[in-house]
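Exam revision sheet. Question 4 asks you to relate a sequence to its structure. Input first:
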Amino acid sequence: MDNLSVEHLIGIKDLTENDIQLIFKTADSFKEIINRPIKKVPSLRDITIANLFFENSTRTRLSFELAQKRLSADVINFSASSSSVKKGETLIDTVNNILSMKVDMVVMRHPNPGAAHFLSTKVKAKIINAGDGTHEHPTQALLDAYSIRERLGDVAGKKVVIVGDILHSRVALSNIYCLQKLGAEVMVCGPTTLIPKYIQDLGVKVEHNLRKALDWCDVANMLRIQLERQDIKYFPSLREYSMQYGLNKEILGSLDKEIVVMHPGPINRGVEITSDVADSKQSIILDQVENGVAVRMAATYLLASKIER
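Answer key, structure tokens:
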């Protein structure tokens, strides 16, 4: 079996193109398995995985948990809102307590950028970053690129625009790294206040006009406005944002080509995307959810093979 070049999955920045292709190839075979009547394989039945979520999450947590159970791993779930973290326990103490229960792998979401990397230097378990603040969300970027590959046959040479709150989005940063490593061209589009100053240093195009961005792209990845991470107002109102940057059926129908529409979820219907677009045949939003399980199974399986026995 081929091996990943990394010991932990902290960010797409650390992966090679070969790593990404290996994850995709492995996900292909797992996708076949999860569409069978019996959806489980015994691959990780001797592995214990802890899911540590210091931030709210529904889809990512459920997707990871389902992926782990499909691989027959033992799973423990930890939510910070109902834990001793509320009593002042540090991250390291929390994790060490969990590791002393003989846990092999930790999937962690944390509000602070760099938390997953910090943890990987302090504990022996394998770490998968399920999102660290506004930094990275590697498995989301992998499942997004995997979904583009599935729909369009390849990622190389495709033009992908990421629309919305780029400033507060870990999904955007991981997507940029992942798409570029696979040979796609990337553009970001949104209000000036929501585009980071350094973004062009990453080799992406910047466009503030949604119509122009859609005319350019093959794929539009619509991000939600992250109101929970915004401490000041970046635009006058959601209604105004929606009028400028919301994707509706009228705009989609007026393009002279068919583009693929994506969204990492959760969707704010009627803000960044209307229901008729989200549910249209051009949308691969539900494919992304299904592919998320296969991709997370692949990443978990490949990292587990590096666990020292």
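Marking note for examiners. Residues 12-137+289-304 form a domain with the Rossmann fold fold (CATH 3.40.50.1370).
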